[in-house]
Amino acid sequence: MSMVIDLLSGLCLLAGAIFSLIGAWGLLRMPDFYTRMHAASVLETLGAGFILLGLMLQAGWTLVTVKLLMIGLLIYFASPTASHALARAAMLRGVKPLLGNPGASSSKP
Amino acid sequence: MMLAGATLALIVCLALALLRAALGPTVFDRLQAANTIGTASMMLLALFGFLNGRPEFLDLAITYGLLNIIGVIAVLKFFRQGDLGAAAGEEPK
User: Contact B66/A75 with Cβ under 8 angstroms?
Assistant: First the structure.
């Protein structure tokens, strides 16, 4: 039983690490501000969520799990708020999103 | 084993986000990178505590998260209105 929980926790940590790397790589490589924001949200939701889940599985039913839940709740509320405020401030200050040419009906070439 | 791997991955994430904060053409790119660095360092603190067998590091992670959200909102308000004390309703035009 403990081996199964260890395995599950390791899988969750692996998934969290991979999603975090994808998010950070997208933050570096995406072409404009709004797409970078989209990439960073992968790190803040899936990456952090999977890592917290893996740590919770390792901790068991203790106070540590409650603290991890509190961190998850904090990220769950704070990160969309910060993203919304950031996008709104950028829009008000005139950062233009990078759009395709207006004639094309889809993003396919 | 996986704890050390995830810790290394998060350190790489911090380096990539730091590079974006250094490169970022607008101030909002830098702010987004700062926000990402805050979240990633929260996760890094939690993982590091588990790696050393000292989960008390989670308290530090919670403190980091609270400071991060307050800092991002304050800096955003400053860059949106040019003034930390402006009333909520008025928009710059």
Answer: no
